[in-house]
Model the fold of this input.
Amino acid sequence: MTAGLFDLRGKVAVVSGAASGMGRASALALAAHGATVVMLDRDVEGMARTGAAIAAAGGVAHAREHDVSSVAAAEALFAWIDAGPGRVDFLANIAGEGTLGDPRTISPAEIRRVLENLVVGRFALCQEAGKRMLAAGRGSIVNTGSLASVTGLGRGHIAYSMAMGAVVQMTRELSTEWAGGGVRVNAILPAQVMNPSLEKRIAADPRMERKWLSGIPAGRLGRPEDIQGLVVFLASDSSSWITGALIPMDGGNLAMNAGGSRGFADPLS
Ligand SMILES: NC(=O)c1ccc[n+]([C@@H]2O[C@H](COP(=O)([O-])OP(=O)(O)OC[C@H]3O[C@@H](n4cnc5c(N)ncnc54)[C@H](O)[C@@H]3O)[C@@H](O)[C@H]2O)c1
Done:
């Protein structure tokens, strides 16, 4: 366990999407810094693997099967947390999924399904956690947004972008309402981070990887571990004056104009 600026001992951190990708990486890092982690996912086996890795490293984690689209499940979850771990200091809203669809043909029902998952379900978790954090006078919430929160991606991302745009406004509004009560709300905006869905898209069309890399000055796609430092920082008291921030985790993507070049020598790179 690591003491000092990023000491999370005594804190309870709730992490959605803990079975894989950035949720798993976050759960491992938070536990390694001393937090008791409540893992949420609909993938029970994946969570068991994350839980085993945490336990093997000497950490503590509880697993709870959870569908982040369900408002009723959010209420039941926090009743369970009240009766079990008994507090919540940090919430990382990481799980969520979009869908791809042509704006000319995607159904309003499909748009609504993505909004329920990425916005309403996450809001329900923020609300339940936020009420408890405000009562305690301290707490920190992180929502994962995306490049699609603040820029357009095209290629059928209409539903995902509408939802991710709402995630940043939810973050700003909650941070504005709750900062005076000691509760911070920030968002992390990742660029392309390798996961099974990106792997499939690269396998289907290898040009996609080149296309994404052309927008990332750092010259590589993201890895789930890239989120670890940010979540530990945002869960810790070291970030106590940071709220309402939208933090890019993108190898420089948002800083670069679409007509910019990654290197000096080759203006077309
Ligand atoms: N990977 C990227 O390039 C990228 C970029 C920007 C934003 N994001 C967002 O970050 C989040 C995590 O991405 P990742 O790459 O770690 O994904 P991932 O596919 O590796 O992991 C997602 C996890 O969430 C769980 N999950 C999905 N829907 C769920 C639901 N309804 N209820 C409970 N659990 C559910 C899955 O079982 C899985 O364990 C997503 O919200 C994604 O939209 C990802």
Summary: Residues 4-194+224-244 form a domain with the Rossmann fold fold (CATH 3.40.50.720).
